[in-house]
Amino acid sequence: MTQKTALLIIDVQVGIVEGPIGPVYQKTSLVQTIKKLREDAWKRAIPVLYVQDTDVAELGADAYAIHPELAPLPTETVILKQATDAFHETDLHEQLQSLGITHLVMTGCKTEFCVDSACKRATTLGYDVTLVSDGHSTTDNTVLRAEQIIAHHNVSMHGLGNIGPFILVRDSTEDVLTPAHDTYR
Q1: Which residues form the Isochorismatase-like domain (predicted)?
Q2: What is the pTM of this model?
């Protein structure tokens, strides 16, 4: 099966990556990983879409903005969302469908909330998903350290599927922009 890929960058807003909601675990390496993936996507003419959470801060506040090192180009799509699920009451699915996308490479913040729900929902909508193991992050909670949350999600999400489409967890050192799902079907 021929697949068409898009890179999805979820909630890498200043208020999450840097604070006050963050800083997220290994924020510098996270930003660099996503930045490199985005540059690779640009070189290969792979669409890059951003998701921005309207609940992070007031519109116009520094914390609301997408991290300056990852700021979208004026021609790139930014999906505004209110729910943890990037597809809920947004036009993300329609945007992806109009581009003919069948494979999503997922990155961003926060692992156990918005990244988790976007990955799972994408499979129910028919997309194969590659979750970049070192391309998502979060903060500590009262039970687990951020590092544990990330590790748990990298293990529990790998292979998770809904009938046909499923999630593969791959490291950014691999060619994550090329889907590997068909080798497992």
Answers
A1: 5-141
A2: 0.97
